[in-house]
Structures are given as structure tokens and as C-alpha cells.
Amino acid sequence: MATTPEHDKRVAELTFASVYPHYVTKVEKKGRTVEELHTVIEWLTGFNETTLNALIEEKVTFKTFFERAKLNANAHLIKGVICGYRIEDITTPLTKQARYLDKLIDELARGRKMEKILRS
Hints:
The chain has helices at residues 5-13, 16-29, 34-45, 49-58, 62-68, 93-109, 114-117; strands spanning 81-82, 85-86. It has 120 residues and is mainly α. A two-stranded antiparallel sheet has the order 1-2. Helix 2 (16-29) packs parallel to helix 6 and helix 3 (34-45) runs antiparallel to helix 6.
């Protein structure tokens, strides 16, 4: 299923700070830690905990978040379906990057081993 321009716009305008607490809740509810969540986010974006907290404080949008990110060279290895969309079929770079993050967090919450999540 392809994303629509409206969907892509909504993703771009979402603030990372508004979604981050949901990421924390999701992984903690499944017995994972905030440290593991930060490891996954840092692997994908290059943002350490200090930078992540600054971005949350600044209330950056996903558009700004991913513009500032240095995406991991192995991010293209993230495949599968998340939120009803097959990642490989998403053509809008920003939406694809946001779904990469969603997929990694979903894998973490589902108990997947960290080596597999980090594609190592």
C-alpha cells in the first residue's frame, strides 16, 4: 500500500517529543528498557541520549529530526510491514525513515535480540 501525500505531510509535521513517550511506554510494557530504546534510536539516527533530549526539548518535527540525523548505512536492511505499510514500497524518504524507526521499536518491544534489530 502506497502512502498518500496527506499521510506523508502528517508524518513530517508530527513532533518527535509527542511520539517519544509512546515509544517508551511500548518498550517498557514489554519488559525492555529506555537504554535499549536509546541504543536503537542511536543506531538508526546517530543521536546520543544528550542530543535526543535536546531534540525533545526543542520539540522538533520528524522532518527536522530526520534532516539532522545521520542515517545508519544499514538502514536499508530494515524491511517488513509496519502500520499497514510495507517499508520497501514507501517512496517518500521521510516517511520511510519514520517507518524504519517504528519498525525497530516494534522489533524491540516484541523481544527480538538486539544484534538482529541492529542488523549486525
